[in-house]
Hints:
This protein is 0% helix and 54% strand. It is mainly beta. The strands form two sheets. Strands 1-4 form a two-stranded antiparallel ribbon. It has a two-stranded antiparallel sheet with strand order 2-3.
Amino acid sequence: MSGNYPKxxxxxxxxxxxxxxxxxxxxxxxxxxFHEDHIVERFPRGVLGIFPSKVT
Length: 56
């Protein structure tokens, strides 16, 4: 690898149970909802788009 590491950010995420698609817009974008919410503050996540496109 080239030494580029993904950036980790801490965001609020919903790790709820029983996910379902509540809405689909004209572009096909889906809205996911949960029957039971479980909000986690400052959950560490890798930022997409920072990862290398090809690992050799």
